[in-house]
Amino acid sequence: YRQKPYSTQTDLSLAYSPGVAEPCLEIEKDPQTAYDYTAKGNLVAVISNGTAVLGLGDIGALSGKPVMEGKGLLFKIYAGIDVFDIEVNEKDPEKFIQAVKAIAPTFGGINLEDIKAPECFEIENRLKEELDIPVMHDDQHGTAIISSAGLLNALEVAGKKIENVRIVVNGAGASATSCTKLYVALGARKENILMLDSKGVITSDRPNLTESKKFFATDRRDVHTLE
């Protein structure tokens, strides 16, 4: 998407009324042409409810706005992508999903940000299924990509193979579980991974584990802490 110069009354009459009617009618006939006639294809929504702001926790939608604005700046500087930051004052997953779906036609992509687990998993999965634009929960997948790159570089320096090393993951939230799933996809063996949460090592005999924690729960009974 490239910005067109507007310098005369004629230019403005093409950009707005009456000229704007033509692209509107084209989009009505074929919604995909919105990517040709509007900024949709270069516009991403960074959306959060402020329930899991990095290092700050559940500080609320408005308090998380500076983080969302900062993320928008990164999009613009490093990728030339325009961003609207949107703070949604809603913790209920279903209501949050419906709010995002209602505004989705504006955007070419959705970047979910700082939404707490386990709600973030349902929100992302549902939106991926129900929208026709890319949806990514950055805390999961963006973090996983960077973390995995660091791990692969460290293994290269150490002269080790990922399938042979033991990995300890200190945390079991959205970022930690997504990072660890990518490690496994890259060749790490699940039996070589120990994941910890606030109660210690996640073992398969612990009750009330979430599905994401069950996936990485170890069958070992001889270890409960790192000591």
From TrEMBL:
GO molecular function: malic enzyme activity; NAD binding; oxidoreductase activity, acting on the CH-OH group of donors, NAD or NADP as acceptor
Pfam assignment, any one: Malic_M
Limits of the Malic enzyme NAD-binding domain: 140-227
Domain Malic enzyme N-terminal: 4-128
InterPro entries assigned to the protein according to its UniProt record, in alphabetical order: Aminoacid_DH-like_N_sf (IPR046346), Malate_Decarboxylase (IPR051674), Malic_N_dom (IPR012301), Malic_N_dom_sf (IPR037062), Malic_NAD-bd (IPR012302), NAD(P)-bd_dom_sf (IPR036291)
Keywords, alphabetical: Oxidoreductase
SUPFAM superfamilies recorded: Aminoacid dehydrogenase-like, N-terminal domain, NAD(P)-binding Rossmann-fold domains
Matches recorded under PANTHER family: NADP-DEPENDENT MALIC ENZYME (PTHR43237:SF4)
Record protein name field: NADP-dependent malic enzyme
Organism (species): human gut metagenome
